[in-house]
TrEMBL record:
Domain (ABC transporter) ranges: 5-241
InterPro entries: AAA+_ATPase (IPR003593), ABC_transporter-like_ATP-bd (IPR003439), ABC_transporter-like_CS (IPR017871), P-loop_NTPase (IPR027417)
Alphabetized Pfam families for the sequence: ABC_tran
UniProt cross-references to SMART domains, sorted A to Z: AAA (SM00382)
UniProt name for this protein: ABC transporter ATP-binding protein
Gene source species: Noviherbaspirillum album
Length: 267
C-alpha cells in the first residue's frame, strides 16, 4: 500500500462545534507531508485523531492499513509503538539528563539490555549532533538544542510515522533551519513518513513533499510546495505571501467594532 496513513470522510466535533468535516487525506510512505492552516483550523486535532487520543464521529483514520480505534486500547498501544510524536511545547523532563530523556521511550517500551540502550541513545543523539551533550541537563542547553533532543526522543523507537506539531515554534532562524533539515534527514534515514503541522511557510516548503491547506475544517488546497507557491487560490496566496487581508479573517467572528463602540447610535 503506497499510503502509510489514510483519512477518509472524517468528521470531528467538540460538542456542537464542528472542527473537521468530510476530510480526505493521504500520507504516502517515505514522504514528508505538511498540514498548514490558520490558528484553530483543526491541525492539531488531525494529529490527535491519528494518534488515537480522541475519536471521530464519522469516517476513518487508518495507519499501515489498520483503523485507529481509541476504544481498542490493546491494538492502539501496538499502533502507537509505530508512531513518534513531537508535540507543541513538547517539553523534556527537566530532572533527567539529555541521555535519559532519549532513553525514556526505550526503557518504557522495550526490554533491551542497558548496553544496547546506550548505543541506540548515542546513535540518535549523534544524528542530531548532540552526542557530546548526553550528560547535560535540559537547563544547561539552548532552546534549539532542546528541540533537537526532543527530535531524538521522538525517533528513539525508529517509528514508521513521525508527527510534529509546530516543530519550529519559538526557535531563532538558524535553529529553525537546522531543525527543518533534521526533520527531513531523520525521515529519510529511518525510511519513515512524517507529518509536519506548521505555520512557517519558508521552512515547511523547504522540506515537504506535499502540503495540505486546511481552513474551517476542510482541505481548501493541496499540492507540492512549488504548486502552492504559484497557486491562484486566494486562501493559499494569503497564507504563502503572509497577507493580512484575504479570506482568512484577522478578527474572531462576532459583533463589529462599530456595534461594540455604539457608533451607529451617534450618527
Ligand atoms: N478540548 C477541547 N474542547 C473544545 N474545543 C477544543 C478543544 N481542543 C481544541 N478545541 C478547539 O478546536 C479548534 C481546533 O483546534 P486545533 O488545536 O486542532 O487547531 P490548530 O489548527 O492546531 O490551531 P493552532 O495552530 O492555533 O494550534 C479550535 O478552535 C479549538 O479552540
Amino acid at each position: 500500500m503506497p499510503n502509510l496513513v489514510e483519512i477518509r470522510d472524517l468528521h470531528f466535533a467538540y460538542g456542537p462545534r464542528t472542527i473537521l468535516s468530510g476530510l480526505h487525506m493521504d500520507f504516502p510512505r517515505g514522504k514528508v507531508v505538511a498540514v498548514m492552516g490558520g490558528s484553530g483550523s483543526g491541525k492539531t486535532t488531525i494529529l490527535r485523531l491519528i494518534g488515537g487520543q480522541i475519536s471521530q464521529q464519522r469516517g476513518t483514520v487508518a495507519v499501515a492499513g489498520e483503523a485507529i480505534d481509541p476504544r481498542n486500547s490493546k491494538a492502539l498501544y501496538q499502533q502507537r509503538r509505530k508512531m513518534g510524536m513531537l508535540f507543541q511545547h513538547g517539553a523534556l523532563f527537566t530532572d533527567l539528563s539529555v541521555f535519559e530523556n532519549v532513553a525514556f521511550p526505550l526503557r518504557e517500551h522495550t526490554r533491551l539490555p542497558e548496553d544496547m540502550i546506550r548505543d541506540l541513545v548515542l546513535m540518535k543523539l549523534h544524528a542530531v549532533g548532540l552526542r557530546n551533550a548526553a550528560q547535560l541537563k535540559p537547563s544547561e542547553i539552548s532552546g534549539g538544542m532542546a528541540r533537537r533532543v526532543a527530535l531524538a526522543r521522538a525517533v528513539a523507537l525508529d517509528p514508521q510515522l513521525i508527527m510534529y506539531d509546530e516543530p519550529f515554534a519559538g526557535l531563532d532562524p538558524i535553529s529553525m533551519g537546522v531543525t527543518a533539515n533534521l526533520v527531513r534527514r531523520l525521515n529519510d534515514a529511518l525510511g519513515s513518513t512524517s507529518i509536519v503541522v506548521s505555520h512557517d511557510v519558508h521552512e515547511t516548503f523547504n522540506i515537504a513533499d506535499h502540503v495540505y491547506f486546511l481552513s474551517q475544517g476542510k482541505i481548501v488546497a493541496h499540492g507540492t510546495p512549488e504548486q502552492m507557491r504559484s497557486s491562484d487560490d486566494p486562501y493559499v496566496r494569503q497564507f504563502v505571501h503572509a497577507q493580512a487581508d484575504g479570506p482568512v479573517p484577522f478578527h474572531y467572528p462576532g459583533r463589529s467594532l462599530a456595534e461594540d463602540l455604539q457608533l451607529g447610535d451617534r450618527r
